[in-house]
Amino acid sequence: MVIKAQRGTKDVFGDEIKTWQKIEKNAREVFSKACFEEIKTPVFEATELFSRGVGESSDIVNKEMYTFYPKFDSKETITLRPENTAGVVRAYIEHNMTRQSPPQKFFYFGPMFRYERPQAGRQRQFYQVGIEMFGIKEASADAEVILAAVEFLKSLNLNNLKVEINSLGCPKCKDDYRASIKEVLKPYLNELCDECKVRYIKNPLRILDCKNENCKKILESKEIKEVIYKDYICNECKEHFDALKKYLDELNINYCINKLLVRGLDYYSRTVFEIKSDALGSQNAICGGGRYDGLVEMLGGNPTPAVGFAMGVERLYSIIKKEQPSKIDYFIVSNNTKEALKLAQKLRQKGKIVDFDYQNRKFAKQFEKAAKVAKNAIVLGEDEINQEYYSIKDLNSGLQTRVNSIDDLI
């Protein structure tokens, strides 16, 4: 029986990997220019990190985590990371980064794991690229993070973007808002979907983000909309949100306020945002993030303001222009494998991309392969080896030239 990849996972290779490499390359370039440093955290962590950090009421913790008992210890479980913010916060605390002068700015690129129904742009093992910024409470940090996301997406030639922002306020604001939402939704409780009935108890704000058509229809009723669109945030949170809007205006970032935007993780406070692309259809969010000022303290660190975002690489891949496979610099056509390998080594040491035929096939077959994969063919026959010269053929023009040294060859 042939063993195949597990459902919800995918092999990435060939022409497809070129586009993935471009996404990662652009992320490194854009984020490094803004002084974000790369961080790599383990793909599995203590389960408690996510149950405490992500939140017991989130769908991730309730339904989607890959959790298991390690063989060497059956008392505590570990979990494949379903997201990376909690892991970066854990590293931030563990390595005493609070002692450093703020801000601390990180970016990451790597696999995450969630047990959910595989669909277009969504896998059980999926990749995320994201950034986290610690130590700055001012709205300038929020603007910096949103700007980094927009600039990265623009570097991939994604320009028709829609930035949506909202403020959930501080914990006190959120508590007041939750209470008001619960009160106005109470008469409709039996009409809500099964998931929203649970959310009503654990985190009623998540109901605002429900995709169920009946729940969305309920939210359109006049009395509920009045509660949703009423301004519950305190003066300090309002000043923070107003400052963010002014920064985005100065940066010429087009945005709109979406009062239904709450995000799916419990740790968000004040700013939340999403960046959307119409190219994705109905599930059009390409990036999501916000401020999580209480998470560092919740996980055992000192009170530290923080803000960040994450975006799915598979979704990015589905809408950006695909990279065309590039041809290598040289293909060596020869029946002397030893000399071909020696020449390949010299050219590679000079920074060139080189391949050759390992099977000593007829020259016609080798030229056929060279025409498909290379810009130039280097002929290394008996005459070239004995008389110490190289014949190089431009596979585009057909022009063939004789040269006497590696430098002339290059």
Helix content: 25-40%
CATH class category of the largest domain: Alpha Beta
CATH H-level superfamily title of the largest domain: Bira Bifunctional Protein, Domain 2
Assign the structural class, choosing from mainly alpha, mainly beta, alpha/beta, alpha+beta, or little secondary structure: alpha+beta
Low-confidence stretches: none
CATH architecture level-2 label of the largest domain: 2-Layer Sandwich
Radius of gyration: 27 Å
Q: How large is the count of helical segments? A: 16
Indicate the mean pLDDT. 90
C-alpha geometry:
elongated
- Examine the coordinates and then state which fold CATH places here, giving the name of the CATH topology of the largest domain: BirA Bifunctional Protein, domain 2
- Report the span from N to C terminus: 49 Å
Q: List how many beta strands DSSP finds.
A: 16
* Strand portion: 15-25%
Strands of the largest sheet, in order across it?
1-5-6-11-10-9-7-8
Q: Largest beta sheet, briefly?
A: 8 strands, mixed
Number of domains: 2
Please write out the topology.
Blueprint: H1 14-33, E1 37-38, E2 44-46, H2 47-53, H3 59-64, E3 66-68, E4 78-80, H4 85-94, E5 104-113, E6 125-134, H5 139-155, E7 161-167, H6 171-185, H7 194-202, H8 213-219, H9 222-228, H10 235-250, E8 255-257, E9 269-277, E10 285-291, H11 295-298, E11 306-312, H12 313-319, E12 328-333, H13 337-349, E13 354-356, H14 363-373, E14 374-379, H15 382-387, E15 390-394, E16 400-403, H16 406-409
Parallel strand pairs: 1-5, 7-8, 12-13, 12-14
Antiparallel strand pairs: 2-4, 3-4, 5-6, 6-11, 7-9, 9-10, 10-11, 14-15, 15-16
